[in-house]
């Protein structure tokens, strides 16, 4: 039997030794045959911040060696922050991982490296791993140069081809995705359909990250889809004081037998990730129920909420010559920031971000469909 441990997002600003979880949790990670995380940002000391919308994340250089010490074997790099400090940030991170003898996946110095799947033989079972992210800053999509650095795009046809090819030569195919709406506990319908499509092509397990909160899972035919594992360890300004109650996975594989799994519930306490006692465990059954009969209702409510609170206002702001987003008070605040000469928002970058990002596009389109249906 092969045990594979998979967890969600990691950003480490504060631990100088790179050790982000308790000894108890580290022993679980180390006792797995292969352990995987999403490495959400490049290491410090390389490159300069790229022009983008949103925060630029980095993490301590020691994080990679710390993760290795605590049992991790693979860091996934296909995410929306891995190119925050340009090609130097990415390549410095990859080189540090090589020094630590930890595998990398999902990003690289060119298209070929970024999209190259990882094939590992573990205890006589062959696994194919794919890692890709939705379209944000750093994506290698149909308009990028084949020789530029960046990360693999989850909607590129190359991903579909790789699943089919890996299924022919591997016992199991695992797709690790980074996509979706942040801070919502259900997946968008479009991502749900995309992940099911991966399973139809041959993926045995699809594991999601990026929402920063846990979402439910479902068994689709003989495959499993885990829509979001939430944060594993995140200590940036917005998360440092949050418990980040979530879960990781131990997946069990045996030749010619059904995959099964065990959730590992954890939360952040005293600055490290710890195993959660029963009273702090997330209610995974409740999250799963939101994927059932009431899913459409929850989905439509989520779509309209984020459209009205964020997407619509940012679209208006990006398209108007004055600091106006459709709301009087927030527009006054934007005007005040300009008068105090704070950093000016590049409206063209904001518009690109809103139009290129699939999750926001899905929100805008479906919200307008719902609004028109009500008339």
H/E element string? Answer: EHEHEHEEHEEEEHEHEEEEEEEHHHHH
Q: Report mean pLDDT, rounded to a whole number.
A: 95
Low-pLDDT windows of residues: none
Question: What portion of residues belong to β-strands?
Answer: 15-25%
**DSSP helical segment count:** 11
Radius of gyration: 20 Å
Structural class: alpha/beta
Major beta sheet summary: 8 strands, mixed
Rough outline: globular
The helix content is 25-40%
* Total strands: 17
Measured between the Cα atoms of the first and last residue, the distance is 57 Å
| Oligomer type | single chain
Can you characterise this structure?
The chain is an alpha/beta fold and 375 residues long. The chain is 35% helix and 24% strand. Helix 8 (295-319) runs antiparallel to helix 10. 44% of the residues are buried.
Short note summarizing the structure:
This protein is of the alpha/beta class and 375 residues long.
Give the secondary structure arrangement, pairings included.
Blueprint: E1 2-11, H1 23-31, E2 34-39, H2 62-69, E3 74-76, H3 86-99, E4 103-105, E5 107-108, H4 111-115, E6 118-122, E7 125-133, E8 139-140, E9 150-152, H5 157-169, E10 172-178, H6 189-201, E11 205-209, E12 217-220, E13 223-226, E14 231-234, E15 246-253, E16 260-269, E17 272-275, H7 284-289, H8 295-319, H9 328-339, H10 347-356, H11 358-374
Helix pairs in contact: 8-10, 8-11
Name a few traits of the molecule.
alpha/beta, single chain, 35% helix, 375 residues, globular, 6-stranded mixed β-sheet, 8-stranded mixed β-sheet
């Amino acid at each position: 039997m092969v045990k594979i441990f998979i967890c969600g997002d990691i950003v480490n600003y504060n631990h100088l030794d790179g050790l982000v979880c308790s000894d108890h949790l580290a022993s679980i990670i180390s006792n797995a045959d292969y352990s995987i995380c999403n490495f959400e940002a490049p290491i410090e000391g390389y490159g300069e911040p790229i022009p983008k919308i949103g925060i630029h994340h980095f993490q301590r250089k020691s994080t990679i060696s710390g993760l290795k010490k605590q049992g991790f074997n693979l860091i996934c790099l296909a995410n929306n922050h891995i190119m925050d400090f340009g090609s130097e940030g990415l390549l410095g991170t990859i080189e540090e991982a090589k020094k630590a003898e930890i595998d990398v996946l999902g990003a690289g110095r060119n298209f070929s490296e970024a999209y190259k799947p990882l094939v590992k033989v573990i205890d006589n079972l062959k696994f194919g791993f794919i890692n890709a992210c939705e379209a944000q800053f750093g994506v290698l999509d149909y308009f990028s140069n084949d020789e530029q650095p960046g990360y693999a795009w989850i909607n590129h046809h190359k991903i579909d081809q790789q699943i089919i090819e890996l299924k022919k030569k591997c016992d199991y195919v695992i797709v690790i995705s980074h996509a979706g709406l942040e801070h919502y506990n259900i997946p968008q319908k479009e991502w749900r359909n995309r992940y099911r499509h991966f399973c139809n092509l041959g993926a045995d397990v699809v594991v999601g990250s990026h929402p920063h909160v846990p979402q439910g899972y479902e068994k689709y035919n003989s495959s499993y889809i885990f829509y979001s594992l939430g944060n594993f360890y995140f200590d940036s300004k917005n998360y440092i004081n949050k418990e980040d109650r979530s879960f990781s996975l131990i997946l069990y594989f045996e030749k010619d037998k059904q995959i099964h799994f065990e959730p590992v519930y954890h939360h952040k306490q005293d600055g490290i990730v710890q195993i959660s006692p029963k009273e702090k465990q997330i209610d995974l059954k409740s999250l799963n129920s939101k994927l059932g009969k009431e899913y459409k209702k929850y989905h439509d409510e989520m779509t309209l909420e984020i459209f009205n609170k964020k997407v619509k206002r940012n679209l208006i702001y990006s398209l108007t010559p004055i600091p106006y987003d459709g709301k009087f008070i927030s527009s006054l605040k934007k005007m005040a920031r300009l008068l105090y000469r704070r950093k000016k928002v590049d409206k063209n970058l904001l518009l690109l971000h809103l139009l290129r990002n699939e999750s926001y596009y899905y929100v805008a389109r479906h919200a307008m469909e719902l609004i028109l249906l009500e008339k």
